[in-house]
């Protein structure tokens, strides 16, 4: 594997200032009040791994360091406001408290909820967790019928592949049967096998967040047009802070490709923190370095060539979004055309940002979809 830094000025420079979700970051549309943002609730029994998930995904804590986390005794709220597309709140709810008790304002907690993630420890006896899942889902649904219910079958890193599949099948069957027995079969549950020791937790969170992005169909269409006209095999639109991909093209996601793209983002961030302009080298950890002032170059990019004649190509889209493409080395010979198409893609994304910033209705987004696609100027590769 080689890491190229060409002298053309369009390669690894510094990512924009503030990789963290800090208050100094002025991003288009990031001034929405907390009440207006979708809310993701993390629920589950004590010691199921809720706080560890939050720390690893959104605070860049090493998985091994989460072994020393204490159980949460109060609601822990995280405000994620890193771009116009990814704006939401994460609420980590303690597992030993019944938030449907009259002493709590359950209408306020669940009424503004966009997604509810219930975490089940796959290495423990999950009968009690399934009972809590059923009671939580059934009561939350009565308060807010628009909630997306997600089940993270967590800590599967210690299970064999066959055991993972069997555990997921058993939990899926029991949870759906419980809902059907109480006449709630219309409630849809999505199941994900997750672990903080690999990229599965980031992929699962990506799928959850995508359900909260109204612009997702537009982004997918733009990515489809980009790859079909540029000889690209797969493209992801990443939030570089959390490594959540907020959109990808319509082709299936291969876990190995996703992991390669995540690793590439780590490499680019680390190199930018070391060699980026105006970065203070006294910082020790990535989280502290991420808050340092670095030069913002919207032409920053990176190329990684794999020994399989495959190219990983990263280009910044805006302060917190990066486009990561996977393509064959032969297709990359026309890099100028690919760069031009990426430039057109970036302009189309900015138009979608502008629409959201002006708080136009969803119908406007739908009607603008075809206009963006046909006016972005992308050139076909021949």
How would you describe this structure in keywords?
single chain; 382 residues; alpha/beta
Shape: globular
The unreliable regions are 1-31, 278-296
Strand sequence of the main sheet, in spatial order? 1-10-11-12-8-9
Secondary-structure content class: alpha/beta
Query: Helical content, roughly?
Result: 25-40%
**Number of E strands:** 12
The end-to-end span amounts to: 28 Å
- Return Rg in Å: 21 Å
Strand content: 15-25%
Topology, pairings included?
Layout: E1 2-4, E2 39-44, H1 50-59, E3 76-81, E4 87-92, H2 106-111, E5 113-121, H3 127-143, E6 148-154, H4 161-181, E7 189-193, H5 200-210, H6 216-230, E8 232-239, E9 244-248, H7 255-275, H8 286-289, E10 301-305, E11 310-316, E12 321-328, H9 335-357, H10 362-375
Parallel strand pairs: 2-4, 2-5, 5-6, 6-7
Antiparallel strand pairs: 1-10, 3-4, 8-9, 8-12, 10-11, 11-12
Helix pairs in contact: 3-4, 6-9, 6-10, 9-10
């Amino acid at each position: 594997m080689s890491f190229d830094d060409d002298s053309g000025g369009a390669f690894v420079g510094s990512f924009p200032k503030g990789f963290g979700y800090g208050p100094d970051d002025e991003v288009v549309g990031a001034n929405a009040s907390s009440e207006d943002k979708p809310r993701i609730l993390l629920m589950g029994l004590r010691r199921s791994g809720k706080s560890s998930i939050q720390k690893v995904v959104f605070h860049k804590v090493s998985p091994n360091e989460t072994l020393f986390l204490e159980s949460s005794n109060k609601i822990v709220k995280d405000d994620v406001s890193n771009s116009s597309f990814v704006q939401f709140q994460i609420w980590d709810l303690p597992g030993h408290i019944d938030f449907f008790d009259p002493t709590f304002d359950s209408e306020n907690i669940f009424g503004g909820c966009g997604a509810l993630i219930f975490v089940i420890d796959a290495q423990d006896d999950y009968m009690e967790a399934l009972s809590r899942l059923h009671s939580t889902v059934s009561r939350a649904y009565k308060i807010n019928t628009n909630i997306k219910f997600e089940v993270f079958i967590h800590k599967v890193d210690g299970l064999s592949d066959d055991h993972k599949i069997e555990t997921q099948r058993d939990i899926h069957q029991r949870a759906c049967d419980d809902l059907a027995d109480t006449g709630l079969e219309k409630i849809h549950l999505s199941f994900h096998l997750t672990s903080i020791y690999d990229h599965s937790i980031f992929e699962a969170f990506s799928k959850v967040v995508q359900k909260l992005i109204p612009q997702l169909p537009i982004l997918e269409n733009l990515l489809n047009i980009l790859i079909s006209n540029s000889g690209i095999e797969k493209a992801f639109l990443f939030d570089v802070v959390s490594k959540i991909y907020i959109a990808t093209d319509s082709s299936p996601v291969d876990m190995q490709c996703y992991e390669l793209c995540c690793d590439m983002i780590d490499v680019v961030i680390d190199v930018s923190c070391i060699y980026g302009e105006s970065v203070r080298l006294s910082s020790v950890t990535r989280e502290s370095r991420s808050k340092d002032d670095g030069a913002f170059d919207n032409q920053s990019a990176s190329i990684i060539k794999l020994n399989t004649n495959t190219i990983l190509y990263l280009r910044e889209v805006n302060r917190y979004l990066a486009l990561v493409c996977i393509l064959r080395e032969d297709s990359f010979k026309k890099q100028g055309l690919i760069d031009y198409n990426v430039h057109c893609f970036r302009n189309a994304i900015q138009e979608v940002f502008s629409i959201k910033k002006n708080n136009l209705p969803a119908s406007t987004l739908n009607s603008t979809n075809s206009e963006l696609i046909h006016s972005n100027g992308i050139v076909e590769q021949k």
